[in-house]
Amino acid sequence: MGWRSRLRRSLARERLTIWALGVVVIVAALLVGFAGTPYMAPDGSIERVSAIPGATVTETAGGYAITPSTEKPDTGLVFYPGARVDPNAYVSMLAPVVDQTGVAVFVPRPRLNLAVFEPGMADSIASDHPSIDRWYVGGHSLGGAMACRYAAANSEAVTGLVLFGSYCDRSIADTDLSVLSVGGTSDTVLGTETGALRPETLPESATIRRVEGLNHTQFGSYTGQPGDSPAEISRARAHDRLQSLLIEFFETE
């Protein structure tokens, strides 16, 4: 082979390498841009939570801690946000639960707003709050699936799991975890049938509920998610129903 052929092949390989690196950079930039523009709660929603006397909201590392105002909690819930949903979209729905139950709720912000990149978020929160001796994990959509992975890997340290518009992508059926799984009959992101919640992956004792008319975005306070259907109930009614189910879940534990 002559030196000209070797040179041409070397240049071709170099161009291919540069092209491949360019594609990687473009894809990474698109992912960062996509994930970095999360669905947000309406303006003023965090401020309105201050009217709830029994719940105090503190912003921490881009997420939120919602703690009882008048008592020291011994129970905590780490609630993982859905994909590309800002933690602020869950505060107004969860704060009344803190007020009624005394359970502290933490809504962290995962890297790139995607819990799949940080399924172990609950570890640092539990470490930062050693006075809380009973922990639940949970979440919405992708966040719930990642919380289930955490619960599956840490079933001795976790008491239970809360799934809102979500499912377990691995079985926890043989664990002693307490589970609340809630779906919506207008949720066309996850699916409208009970089977979308994958009850076969949950313990037989799991509490599984479906809320009539609730869609995927009404598990939080945001709008515009592709693939979802119009809700058939108001957001206020949806949150009232979710809060009642979660309060009942904690009070019967």
The CA-CA distance between the termini, in Å, is 77 Å
State the shape. globular
Number of helices: 6
Class from helix and strand fractions: alpha/beta
**Helix amount:** 25-40%
Number of domains: 2
User: So what's the CATH class of the largest domain?
Assistant: Alpha Beta
Q: Main sheet: which strands, in order across? A: 1-2-4-3-5-6-7-8
The largest sheet is:
8 strands, mixed
* Unreliable sequence segments: 16-35
Rg, Å, rounded? 21 Å
Counted beta strands: 8
Order of helices and strands: HHEEEHEHEHEEEH
The CATH superfamily of the largest domain bears the name Alpha/Beta hydrolase fold, catalytic domain
Describe it for me?
The chain is α/β, with parallel strands linked by helices and 253 residues long. The chain has 2 domains: 1-35; 42-251, Rossmann fold, CATH 3.40.50.1820. Helix content is 34%, strand content 18%. It is built from 6 helices and 8 strands; from the N terminus they run ααβββαβαβαβββα. It has an 8-stranded mixed beta sheet with strand order 1-2-4-3-5-6-7-8, sandwiched between helices. Helix 3 (91-101) links the parallel strand 3 (75-80) and strand 4. The protein starts with a helix and ends with a helix. Mean pLDDT is 89; it is low at 16-35.
